[in-house]
């Protein structure tokens, strides 16, 4: 596979380079931490990392090894950091189990170990580092914040009786509401996702379910009756993952790194995304997973949000041979962030603002970065590409925690760009090439994958199995999420799609949905996605579907759909409001040949 050849070449070059320099190996046991000891690993890691940084020279290759086994990390003694993380809650400070910062040529090798976290923590961060590798370990939490329950009885008159999973700590409040708790946290859930008990597929046509546990009472040990929760779709045996909407922290956080490799690492749970990378250059994921612990895992869920998410990165993102299941959002999302123009100071200077409440506080651009401007209502480019000559925070002294930036450009800005009409600024320098290949995506909420980058993107040889919503989304939005941008060169080939669209979520118009958010499509004159002939190519794929919609496309110049096989089954009853096999809105230079 193309992915393997690229990875093999990367490893060969890495080994050739490594042989030039000395190598230091540290074993975590020398710091007094043994596997399966239940000792708090958090302060030990702080001590070990401080020693490594003090002793190692920049050119040295360093290996930190963990003998195989379980290691427990607690909030007490953990590193305390102020991190602003894209697409997460900007709550600070954060307690970090393994804080890798300003590292060079470091390999953290878990040798098959389980890293288990307690309370509310960010398990692992890697910041401002180069040529680092994370491999051979898993991340999990002793007591996940998502609450899993099994439906025992369901009657229209009396409501629902459910049983919390064995690891769930719960209590019924004085006002008769079911709630859960753990080390340093409490939650009252009022929504969730329903899974089929035998297959772990999302229950057909349930999407995000809402409920009330008012009036809850225990009718038998760990059997909770809730008269106010009534939903005929949840038959006995259904498993519900009760959840909130908070995203305190991902499982792994990467920021301002160069040449990062993550190999054979599994995230079994995180209260945010499995992996969030921002402002990184070159990332390779090989056999990375956001997944259950095998077929016999009693859990049905993994992460609270996306499995992997790349915000404002550049270079190459290579993600191959992974397993992504049970998460509450996409397996992969690649995008930048539009700044909204909130002030025009002069013909070369603007103030831009981060708009979404979960995406602000981190660096947006640098001098010499290439940018372009988009009109929010029609998502059309305005004026010419430009270059940043200077950028600094406008509402704070420092970048960390800033929402606004004052930006000066090398050329005069188009006179049409102003703060009243709605314009966004897109950073073109911080956009990556993407290879997403050989992955399995299954039994998750929302969508399978999302790509928004103008650079070459290849999505091939993946299995999208019951993704519940759209399997592949090409988006772009300067109105709500403010996630850039247009796709210019996309190849989607040799993938297999099995029964997507069993539920409805945002942007789920077809199995493959090319769906930029354009409030005023009727007045749009240009096109958002595509550009060159055949800018988006969908070929040699196999679709197995119970319903009609295969491809939806909006505002595309250059679309080819060819040599694909579509097979219809009767596993579910068709229900989608879009009953067109192909639905095209403002699409030109299009070829469809089955």
Low-confidence region ranges: 13-19
Number of separate strands: 50
> What would you call the quaternary organization?
single chain
Mean pLDDT: 96
Biggest sheet descriptor: 33 strands, mixed
Helix content: under 10%
Termini gap: 25 Å
- Class by SSE composition: mainly beta
Over all CA atoms, what is the radius of gyration? Answer: 24 Å
Determine the strand fraction and express it as a percent band: 35-45%
Q: Tell me the overall shape.
A: globular
Q: With helices defined by DSSP (H or I, 4 residues minimum), what is the helix count?
A: 2
Written description of the protein model:
With 594 residues, the chain is mainly beta. The chain is 5% helix and 44% strand. It has 2 helices and 50 strands. The strands form 4 sheets. It has a 33-stranded mixed beta sheet that branches. Strands 15-14-18-9-10-17-16 form a 7-stranded antiparallel beta sheet, with no helix packed on it. Strands 28-29-33-32-30-34 form a 6-stranded antiparallel β-barrel. Strand 12 and strand 13 form a beta hairpin. The two termini are 25 Å apart. About 1% of the residues have low confidence.
């Amino acid at each position: 596979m193309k992915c393997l050849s690229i990875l093999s070449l990367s490893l060969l070059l890495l080994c050739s380079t490594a042989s030039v320099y000395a190598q230091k190996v540290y074993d975590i046991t020398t710091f007094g931490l043994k596997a399966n000891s239940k000792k708090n690993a958090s302060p030990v890691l702080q001590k070990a990392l401080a020693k490594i940084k003090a002793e190692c020279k920049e050119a040295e290759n360093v290996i930190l090894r963990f003998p195989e086994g379980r290691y427990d990390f607690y909030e007490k003694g953990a590193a305390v950091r102020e991190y602003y993380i894209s697409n997460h809650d900007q709550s600070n400070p954060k307690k970090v189990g393994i804080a890798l910062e300003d590292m060079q040529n470091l390999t953290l090798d878990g040798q098959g170990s389980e890293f288990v976290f307690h309370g509310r923590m960010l398990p692992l961060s890697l910041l401002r580092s180069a040529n680092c590798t994370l491999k051979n370990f898993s991340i999990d939490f002793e007591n996940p914040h998502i609450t899993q329950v099994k439906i025992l009885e369901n009657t229209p008159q009396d409501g629902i009786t459910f049983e919390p999973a064995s690891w769930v700590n719960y209590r019924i409040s004085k006002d008769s509401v079911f709630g859960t708790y753990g080390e340093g946290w409490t939650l009252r859930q009022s929504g969730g996702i329903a899974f089929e008990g035998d297959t772990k597929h999302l229950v057909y046509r349930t999407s995000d379910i809402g409920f009330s546990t008012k009036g809850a009472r225990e009718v038998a040990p760990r059997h909770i009756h809730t008269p106010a929760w009534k939903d005929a779709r949840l038959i006995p045996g259904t498993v519900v993952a009760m959840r909130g909407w908070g995203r305190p922290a991902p499982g792994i956080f990467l920021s301002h790194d160069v040449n990062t490799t993550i190999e054979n690492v599994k995230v079994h749970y995180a209260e945010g995304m499995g992996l969030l990378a921002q402002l990184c250059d070159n990332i390779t994921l090989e056999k990375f997973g956001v997944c259950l612990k095998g077929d016999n895992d009693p859990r049905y869920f993994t992460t609270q949000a996306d499995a992997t998410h790349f915000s404002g990165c550049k270079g190459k993102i290579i993600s191959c041979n992974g397993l992504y299941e049970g998460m509450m959002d996409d397996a992969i999302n690649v995008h930048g962030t539009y700044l909204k123009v909130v002030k025009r100071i002069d013909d070369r200077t603007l103030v831009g603002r981060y708009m979404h409440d979960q995406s602000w506080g981190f660096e947006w651009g640098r001098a010499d970065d290439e940018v372009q401007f988009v009109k929010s209502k029609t998502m059309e480019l305005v004026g010419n590409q430009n270059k940043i000559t200077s950028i600094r925070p406008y509402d704070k002294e420092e970048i960390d925690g800033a929402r606004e930036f004052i930006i000066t450009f090398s050329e005069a800005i188009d006179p049409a760009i102003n703060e009243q009409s709605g314009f966004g600024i897109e950073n073109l320098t911080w956009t990556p090439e993407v290879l997403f290949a050989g992955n399995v995506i299954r039994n998750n909420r929302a969508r399978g994958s999302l790509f928004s980058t103008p650079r070459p993107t290849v999505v091939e040889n993946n299995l999208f199995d019951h993704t519940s919503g759209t399997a592949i989304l090409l988006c772009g939005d300067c109105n709500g999420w403010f996630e850039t941008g247009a796709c210019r060169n996309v190849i989607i080939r040799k993938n297999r799609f099995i029964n997507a669209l069993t539920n409805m979520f945002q942007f789920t118009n077809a199995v493959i949905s090319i769906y930029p958010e354009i409030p005023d499509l009727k007045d749009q004159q240009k096109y958002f996605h595509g550009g060159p002939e055949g800018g988006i190519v969908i070929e040699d794929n196999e679709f197995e579907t119970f319903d009609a919609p295969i491809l939806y496309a909006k505002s595309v110049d250059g679309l080819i759909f060819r040599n694909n096989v579509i097979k219809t089954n009767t596993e579910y009853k068709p229900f989608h409001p879009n009953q067109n096999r192909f639905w095209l809105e403002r699409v030109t230079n299009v070829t469809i040949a089955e």
